[in-house]
Design brief:
By secondary structure, this protein is mainly alpha-helical. A two-stranded antiparallel ribbon has the order 1-2. It has a two-stranded antiparallel ribbon with strand order 3-4. β1 and β2 form a beta hairpin. The protein is elongated.
Length: 172
Amino acid sequence: MNNEQLNQEVKKLQNEIYGLKRKLINLKLKQGLASKKKPYEVEVLDDLEDYYYVDEAGAVDLVGIYRKYEQKEIYIRGLAFETVEEAEQNDKERILLFKLHKWAEECNEGWIPDWQKGIPKYFAMFNRVTGEFSVGADCYCRVFTKLPYFKSDDLAEQFIEEFGDEIKEVFC
């Protein structure tokens, strides 16, 4: 075997190695994509005909009056309920939350909590044991609450005074 033949043989082996490396990379990519965790999806019930839904005007309807794709959309939004009472309770909660946030928006006068700064933000807390509200404050760690934050503890106190009983009635 001469030099030229050896060079050709080396080039042939290099091309084979390159091809095998590409196959290996593609295989790893496919395996990586297949093994990635799929995001959780809500499984839609097959039969939603007898579930209830509160429409945008507050009327309670059977989910079954809607087309199948609309039933699915209602269900995945958490708006399909097994009983009329559950549907009505959800409607009361939505109405109250909207009212609470509108009140807070007006009273906070455009203030929006800035979680980047160590300035306290105030919120209403409810103790289930004592049945009493109190004002909580936080600077950096946002508590996951549906209730609004306030720029002062005085506003949070006013909020509790204004809405405490209604919050207990609807949410507790």
